[in-house]
Amino acid sequence: MAQRMNVGVIGATGMVGQNYLRLLANHPWFTVNYVAASPQSAGKTYAQAVAGRWHMNGDIPDAVQQLVVGDASDVAAAQGKCELIFSAVSLDKKAVTALELAYATAGFPVVSNNSAHRATPDVPMVIPEINPGHLDVIADQRRARGWTTGCIAVKSNCSIQSYMTPVWALWQAGHKPRTMIISTLQALSGAGHPGVASLDIQDNIVPLIKGEEEKTEIEPLKIFGRVEGGAIVNDASIAISAHCNRVAVVDGHTACVSLQFDGAAPALDEIVQIWRQFRAAPQELDLPMAPQRPIICRDEADRPQPRKDRDADKGMAVTVGRLRPCNVFDIRFVGLHHNTVRGAAGGAILTAELMKARGVI
User: Fold this and answer.
1) Per mean pLDDT, which range of 97-106, 186-195, 216-225, 319-328 is the poorest?
2) What pLDDT does residue 191 have?
3) What are the pLDDT digits (tens) for 30-46?
4) Residue 40: Cβ within 10 Å count
5) What percent of the chain is modeled with pLDDT above 90?
6) Helices (H), 202-344
7) I need a labelling partner for 183 at 20 to 30 A (CA). Which of 41, 242, 255, 349 fits?
């Protein structure tokens, strides 16, 4: 990809925003040229704005330390500084919806980590290995809203990515899912900073993450859906039941999945072969953030584990293991991914790479 693109990060001082800057520090296609946050941070250098609250491993990237932080609500301030916006703002849903629409109306492609537009019918919610074709709806999105260069694409809820690609790989091989029961064990970093109070999580599991079960049960239906009439139509043929729990793990969301197929179940060795051979658009296009192996299948009886497997292939791979027959459904397995990389900033960067490679931006 010969031509570099200047990008901006709004919500740049928060945990997700910081992860964007960390992951984009040496990106071969994208250069961070604009950062924005709350009015309290606006006018300061980025280093000043995050002084005492830089939560990433390693130092603040040199290239962004002296960037002057803009006010994220001032869309005009981004004009001329960047050509693409990564949205990680922390506002209420109504405010996020309006702000992302304002950036898109001003001509910016917006790739968002927020949930505000996930249910918007003409906004693609993309896991690049699964539904790259959903980016086709952006042409309809632009036409309906009178946009030329602006658009909005979003990433999914972080927890569902620990099992969606393995399930999709089986579907692509002819083994369609019919029913899934999913129990997620979600890391503390998924709650942001400062997150869950230490006395609530030490020696404990919290069996409620507000809104997570609803997202887990609904969002896959859109990702598995189809583009029709300028909108994405959910695939309502799959039933999902979810239990979502917060556990005392720093990074790495785990999902225990029981799966029933719509038809005869494949043999376990066939499933392993499908997972190990699976490749999709990001690998075919050799996108910079793409894992070489989107699904890593472990043979050990006690894997995957967050500490051992969350960083696999740049933190962008899904690691699966404990594949075995299910006494109620057909099969069961455990999936794991890095929630703040694949499930957050890294996944959004990969989506932006896909959009650029396909000529959407």
Assistant:
1) 186-195
2) 84
3) 999 999 999 999 999 99
4) 11
5) 94
6) 212-223, 268-277, 281-284, 306-309, 312-315
7) 349
Q: Hey, what are 24's tokens?
A: 């984009």
End-to-end CA distance of the chain: 13
Close Cβ partners of 2 (under 8 Å, ≥ 6 residues apart): none
d(CA 229, CA 140): 9
- Tens of pLDDT, residue by residue over 290-321, are 999 999 999 999 999 999 999 999 999 999 99
CB 76 within 8 A of CB 70: no
Among positive and negative, which fits the CA dihedral 120, 151, 291, 171? positive
The topology (CATH level 3) of 159-338 is Dihydrodipicolinate Reductase; domain 2 (3.30.360)
**Residue 73 structure tokens:** 């609500």
* Residues forming the active site: 158, 253
Estimate to the nearest angstrom the gap between the alpha carbon of 267 and the chain centroid: 30
Match 């009178």 to its residue by tokens.
146
- From 199, 194, 182, 198, select the one nearest 253 (Cα to Cα): 182
| Contact criterion met (CB below 8 Å) for 7 and 35 | no
DSSP of 308-343, one letter per residue? HHTTHHHHT-EEEEEEEE-SSSSEEEEEEE-TTIII
Q: How far apart are CA 8 and CA 234, in angstroms?
A: 31
Summarize pLDDT for 221-256 with one digit per residue, the tens.
Answer: 999 999 999 999 999 999 999 999 999 999 999 999
Both tokens of 249, joined, read: 């793990």
Res 218: pLDDT: 96
Please compute, for residue 42, the number of CA atoms within 13 A of its CA located in the half-sphere on the CB side: 12
**Ranges of each domain in the chain:** 5-158+344-357, 159-338
CATH of 5-158+344-357, one of 3.30.450.40, 3.40.50.300, 3.40.50.720, 3.40.1190.20: 3.40.50.720
